[in-house]
Design a protein that fits this description.
Blueprint: E1 12-15, E2 19-22, E3 32-41, E4 44-54, E5 59-63, H1 70-77, E6 85-90, E7 93-94, H2 100-106, E8 108-110, H3 123-130, H4 139-144, H5 147-166, H6 182-194, E9 200-204, H7 212-229, E10 232-236, H8 240-246, E11 249-254, E12 257-262, H9 264-268, H10 271-278
Parallel strand pairs: 5-10, 5-11, 8-9, 9-10
Antiparallel strand pairs: 1-2, 3-4, 3-6, 6-7, 11-12
Helix pairs in contact: 3-5, 3-6
Length: about 280
């Protein structure tokens, strides 16, 4: 594998609500802003007073010990859960009344800890599933296979192949998704998410189960996605080499609350973060 290109870490600057984003995005409003976000399950506060902003081309990290509430935050952002309190602004618009499908159409796509592909469909058909919002034919056209149906199907296949080619997967287009190696399935899930044309891509433990070589390739792919599509990416990850190597701003959760925000260097040197992961040093 070729030597990884060095990417200088940008300076982080304050934005309203005490949040920080990369300096290059400071002249534009954040693509995502969470204000005092929280959710309760019965008497348990799973996430509380979550405040975070993500710049329009930022690669951001959300980390913390197991059970800290990271995936719960993703579920709030995608409306799998409805917040008990607080506000989510996506491109300046309040998502309060949106459903999961509406949030996806508005610009948030995600992957999951456990791969969720259509195993029995081909690789290209999995990507076409992500393109469904962009296909413009009615039920009658689809049932009767009218010319409008074939035109939209042809356009969708061309777009799917274009997306697959970005990750050198075009030669796998006819393979059954469930037959792919683990790393290729992970890439396919990301490609399918990109097919929805997001402005913010959420990756939930994308390096889980990967070997060091696959993780290094993933790091390069994450940067490639940001640079090619000019979108923001937020990832949950336990591989600290990946997080510190690719993320620009990092938010640390513990017991559902933010305990630190900053650059990778600031997070690594933060005593509260060290204590959350390793425990408090005995006197």
């Amino acid at each position: 594998m070729s030597k990884q290109q060095a990417y200088p870490k940008p300076k982080l600057v304050p934005v309203p609500s005490t949040n920080i984003i990369p300096e290059r995005d400071a002249d534009k409003s954040p693509i995502l802003e969470c204000r005092h976000l929280g959710i309760d399950f019965g008497g348990l506060s799973a996430v509380a007073d979550f405040n975070m902003a993500i710049g329009r081309t930022e690669i951001a990290g959300l980390i913390g010990p197991n059970g800290a509430g990271k995936t719960t935050v993703f579920n709030l952002l995608t409306k799998v859960y409805q917040p008990t309190r607080g506000t989510i602004l996506l491109d300046g618009h309040d998502t309060h009344s949106m459903t999961t499908a509406q949030v996806n159409r508005a610009g948030i796509a995600r992957t999951f800890q456990n791969i969720r592909l259509f195993d029995n469909l081909s690789v290209v058909d999995n990507v076409k599933v992500g393109l469904h919002n962009q296909m413009r034919y009615g039920m009658a056209s689809g049932i009767l296979r009218l010319p409008g149906y074939w035109k939209e199907e042809r356009v969708a296949k061309e777009r799917a192949m274009e997306l697959l080619s970005i990750f050198d997967m075009q030669d796998l287009s006819k393979h059954q998704a469930g037959s792919l190696p683990y790393g290729a399935q992970r890439r396919l899930e990301i490609v399918r998410a990109l097919a929805t044309n997001p402005s913010l891509l959420l990756l939930d433990e994308p390096a889980a189960g990967m070997n060091p070589s696959e993780t290094a390739e993933l790091m390069n792919n994450i940067r490639k996605i940001r640079d090619t599509f000019q979108i923001a990416i937020m990832l949950i990850e336990h591989d600290m080499n990946l997080v510190m190597g690719v993320c620009e701003g990092i938010c640390v959760l513990n017991f559902g609350r933010i305990i630190a925000k900053g650059t990778p260097e600031e997070i690594q040197a933060n005593p509260a973060v060290v204590e959350a992961y390793l425990g408090k040093k005995k006197d």
